[in-house]
Amino acid sequence: MDNKIKFFQKKHIWLIVLYIIFYLAGFALLEQRKITQLHLIHLPWDDVIPFCEYFIVPYILWFFYIGGVAVYFAFFNKNVREYWQVMLTLGIGMTLFLFVSWVYPNGHDLRPETFTRDNIFVQMVQMLYSADTSTNILPSIHVFNSLAAAVALDKCQALKGHPVIRKSAWILSGLIILSTMFLKQHSLLDVICAFALYALVYILVYAPGEGREPVQKGQNAGIQRIMSE
Predict the structure, then answer these.
(1) Percent of the chain with pLDDT strictly greater than 70
(2) 161-166 — which CB contacts under 8 Å span 24+ positions?
(3) 95 burial class (0-12, 13-18, 19+ CB within 10 angstroms)?
(4) Whole-model pTM?
(5) Bridge partner residues of 107 (DSSP)
């Protein structure tokens, strides 16, 4: 246990690089494998949500948003505990996504076959569709990571005096979550499952250290010590 505690007292940023390689390789295998039976994800409410190409902007901003949050907590925020909380949250959620996609091949047929308008935003959506298949969508990683980033920034002690940043994070996360449905990239079920998955990971990563004394007995004490600076 002491060795584990010492390990979590440093950031070990090299683990981020290793995990990125692992995740990208795992996702590439998922996208390239041959699927004999694909489970279609579809809820009646999906047909009510209209397609809106303008949501491509927050959808694309997601890549810079998550990358920026990771860089901030890795290199600029000195709180080691907060670093491990956000990195473990992202890592657990993305790994579980790979596992679910592997054992439960899934996809959707929500994308429009034709577009009523032709503008730069529609062209960006078409590029997105050609680069990203409509498979491996449950739960939505766009949604899960957006929630993880917003909560991490909102709980960050160094940003307590910067309400604009924290509120902006929630607004951007909200727009990203909406974009997954308005761009027909995800079903509402993907979004719901992402919220449920994040709730479970939050309980695992954040809850043990909330509303408790710094020193405790039993298993919770060990978790709290590991997640402390």
Answers:
(1) 89
(2) none
(3) middle
(4) 0.89
(5) 40, 135
